[in-house]
Amino acid sequence: MDRLVAQLGRWSAGRGPLYLLLAERLRQLIDSGQLPPRATLPPDRTLAERLAVGRTTVVAAYDRLRQERKLERHQGRGTWVAPAVLSGWRGAQIAPASPLFLNYLEPLDDVLPLACAAPHGPPPELAAAYQRALPLLPELDSGDIGYHPLGHPALRAALAERHTSRGLPTDPGQILVTTGGQQALALLARLFLKPGDQVLVQAPTYPGALELFREAAALVRSVPTGPDGLDVAAWTAAVAADRPGLAYLNPTHHNPTGATVPTLARRRIAEVAAEHGVPLIEDDILAGLSLDGSEDPPNVASFAPPGAVITVGSLSKVVWGGMRVGWIRAAEGQIAQLSRIKSIHDLGSAVLEQLAAAELLPALPEIAARRGAQLRARHDHLCAQLAEQLPGWRFRRAGGGQCLWVRLPGCDASAYAQVALRHGVAVLPGDALATDGSGADHLRIPFTAPPEQLTESVTRLAAAWRAFRRTGHSPAAVHAMVV
Length: 483
What we know:
By secondary structure, the chain is an alpha/beta fold. Helices cover 41% and strands 14% of the residues. The strands form 5 sheets. The chain has an 8-stranded mixed β-sheet, with helices on both faces. A 3-stranded antiparallel β-sheet has the order 1-3-2.
């Protein structure tokens, strides 16, 4: 008990409800390993007395972490840290809930990585862009020390021109360059959210954003995104009624359903967000990845006054995940605030990579068109394989993006994902993409891999499905933060 109290430290020093502050500090201790798996926590009444808070504060904190599957609680048996590992492929160990991407971004030996949606291999234009960028280094001003917290001026200008050419007039001062889209979202969460703030999201949605909002100790409320796309009426009603501290929307080739919000609905979403003063993050990272070659609708930000809608972009999905260049388009005052936060963390992104990105941007439409055609062929191949080998699974063909949102009949997808891992394929269960339980019987399956790998992946999934249906399994967590 004394050790835990010491580890908690000044847990109540932040802003927000005490139970959220306590839950956040306990979460940090669990994720860092300072509270190891199966470690027993004090009874809520005992801990409340030692911390000089009400018992309900501890109960609420424990319950929040139980919902996140960080803790397990059973009446009469107490509270303890959830097991840290689940049996994996050939005896490997897989970490549950959250602590970052590692087990899915660094896949296990002999396990096909069907949990991460990212391009396989860089396009040839990327190497050529670096070759053009290298000679630019000696030409940099002798006073250039290499730190550019806002981003290198050449890339900021190129990104501003790109947005302007797509119908969203933008000045370089409205651009902040980030180390990938994930850092962009992290900076925005840091700027707009404090513990206890409400954030509005789609259900399902990008799991990396959910993890960031949880880390900020925000209260996540969701609006459904079904086969036909976002429920726009429910979304605008939630914005008007709740006025959340932040809203996060993935309107173009939505991850994971592939749906796109139409133009008129975008206008309405922008108007309602601006009317009620709710900052809206428009995740535009999958822009350009239409499967039928059609043009994307205008940005949501094009219908909003300055500062009402913040647009996040990245090169990781169209170009390559190893190209760690993202950006934020926002009002200049917001960019100044975000740059101060970014400078604390990394002083600025790598200059050579930014120069290469500036050289690459003119070729981006061609790269996106080629990538979209490739994804269309792989999408069709995956759909055919699923229909042939797993005819009981249900899904709607995607209109864009990189994933299928697949419903498994009558089972818990997290439990099935454990069996799939033992059969040599890593898949992401749907409860990692939704906080309301709506994804519990779904998998997110990307179609970014080559056709032969997709075929083998579905073959392993089918074998796992037969084993799962034959033996039966109780629900369990297979949770990770992925891209």
